[in-house]
Write a structure and sequence with these properties.
alpha/beta; Rossmann fold; GMP Synthetase, Chain A, domain 3; 3 domains; seven-stranded mixed sheet; 17 strands; globular; binds guanosine-5'-diphosphate
């Protein structure tokens, strides 16, 4: 289960520098929704073998000091509400500011582990200056330089140490679905529609995080666990932050799920925020079904559905082999189809192809369409196998794996998708040396 570490602090202390250092190779997601704050960033990283999601809560505000103060408060409250640990960053160059004191006050009054990071400690003189930060009343601090990474290792050691133990996820043979999407897309309505007709919710498996409840459903003859992340709204006191809460919740839900049901409001389209959630699921190698909801509100002719579908596929290239179901929760249209498709995607995700069968498929294919010669050398693919991983991964063993390019990988993936149903499932193909 994912844990969240939030970085808070006033602008210019070095939060995003530190953030970028942490999520380096991994793409960060930019949440560019709020007009007031700067973009928020979140991404995944790991330290000492512990994976966590790190959030740079932003903090650049255009406006008066008042707006600014309110914004910082909100940021910190968000962090307190959602994160498992908080890194409070200050800047030794500037020393303690009023804003720092404000943040320290808020942080002192709560129970989450807080790590005070004094940044821009680039030399010994600055290390001596850092003692001033004891005055914030938060106890010991870590001196770091985000630009070159010095001190950040000790800080991260401590942060990771304070994170809650990985919770044992209840082993279940049932597919685990998460309903995700932007606020107002119809997630709760969708879940309610399932609950409404289902009088036999068998058990409530204890929440795997404080924020999500797994409920076992037996619906339309299918059994599955559904994580209800949509219904939990009580913490979203601040309206403008609903979007952010909802995405954070999606981060957790997605990591925990086998298949994500991405609910899209047809009247708003497949916009940037929806795409963020889509790629988050894709990067986590989760099964995906796109549910275009509120189809009742769309004025349509015979072509509308195809056009809509085409538009979405353009946005999700090159991973376009994803089922799209047009639904109306309000009019109870195609709810069954939605669940049926999700179950199918789960089956696709758990599909295992025998090594012999796979070789019979791939070897003639690479023989007929060999990879292009590179620097006068020919790549010979010798055999292949599916790896024993929770999501489909394939290894092709060859003499010169470094010469095989993405284009060829995509060609093989497409062929594989033509031959086997991997709809809605990200697959990986690796070239290994043999
Ligand atoms: P944020 O607004 O808190 O996200 O701050 P940024 O990460 O954008 O950094 C603000 C400025 O501080 C940038 O010019 C950074 O290059 C600089 N900065 C960040 N970390 C360090 C550091 O460790 N040492 C020094 N000297 N400057 C730093
Ligand atoms: P959530 O924030 O994603 O959980 O969205 P809700 O389930 O709360 O739905 C937001 C609004 O959209 C509510 O007013 C719903 O009644 C409405 N809504 C949900 N599904 C549909 C639908 O299929 N058609 C129409 N017309 N409205 C819908």
């Amino acid at each position: 289960m994912s844990t969240i570490v939030a970085i808070v602090g006033r602008p210019n202390v070095g939060k995003s520098t530190f953030f970028n250092r942490l999520v380096q190779r991994r793409e960060a997601i930019v949440d560019a929704v709020s007009g007031v704050t700067r973009d928020r960033h979140y991404g995944k990283t790991d330290w000492n073998g512990r994976e966590f999601t790190v959030i740079d809560t932003g903090g650049y505000v255009i406006g008066s000091d008042d707006v600014f103060e309110a914004e910082i408060d909100k940021q910190v409250e968000l962090a307190i509400g959602e994160a498992d640990a908080i890194i409070f960053m200050v800047d030794v160059e500037h020393g303690i500011t009023g804003m720092d004191e404000e943040v320290a006050n808020l942080l002192r009054r709560q129970k989450k582990p807080v790590f005070l990071a004094v940044n821009k400690v680039d030399n010994n003189k600055r290390a001596a200056d850092a003692v001033e930060f004891y005055n914030l009343g938060l106890g010991d601090f870590y001196t770091i330089a985000a630009t070159n990474g010095s001190g950040t290792g000790d800080l991260l050691d401590a942060v990771v140490e304070a994170l809650p133990e990985k919770e044992e996820v209840e082993e279940s043979e049932l597919p685990r679905f998460a309903v995700v999407g932007r606020p107002n897309a119809g997630k709760s309505s969708f879940i309610n529609a399932l609950i409404g007709e289902e009088r036999y919710i068998v058990t409530d498996i204890a929440g795997t995080t404080r924020d999500s409840i797994d409920t076992k459903y037996n619906r339309f003859g299918f059994e599955f666990n559904l994580m209800d992340t949509a219904g939990i709204r009580r913490k979203a006191k601040v309206k403008e932050d609903l979007e952010f809460y909802s995405v954070m919740r999606s981060v957790r839900a997605i990591e925990h799920a086998d298949v994500c049901l991405l609910v899209v409001d047809a009247t708003r389209g497949f916009d940037g925020q929806v795409q963020n959630i889509f790629w988050l699921a894709q990067r986590n190698r989760k099964g995906i079904v796109i549910l275009v909801n509120k189809w009742d509100l769309v004025e349509k002719d015979t072509k509308t559905m195809k056009q809509f579908e085409k538009h979405i596929k353009q946005q999700i290239e090159p991973f376009t082999d994803v089922p799209i179901v047009f639904i109306s929760v309000l009019e109870k249209q195609r709810i069954f189809k939605a669940i049926e498709t999700a179950v199918q995607v789960y089956e696709n995700k758990t599909r295992r192809i025998k090594t012999s069968e796979l070789n019979e498929f791939f070897l003639p294919l690479v023989e007929a369409f060999p990879p292009p010669a590179y620097k006068g050398k020919y790549v010979k693919i010798k055999y292949c196998m599916q790896l024993p991983t929770p999501q489909p991964q394939f290894a092709l063993f060859c003499n010169l794996p470094q010469y095989l390019k993405d284009g060829y990988r995509r060609f093989l993936e497409n062929k594989l998708r033509e031959a086997y149903d991997f709809s809605g499932v990200p697959i990986s193909i690796y070239f290994r040396k043999k």
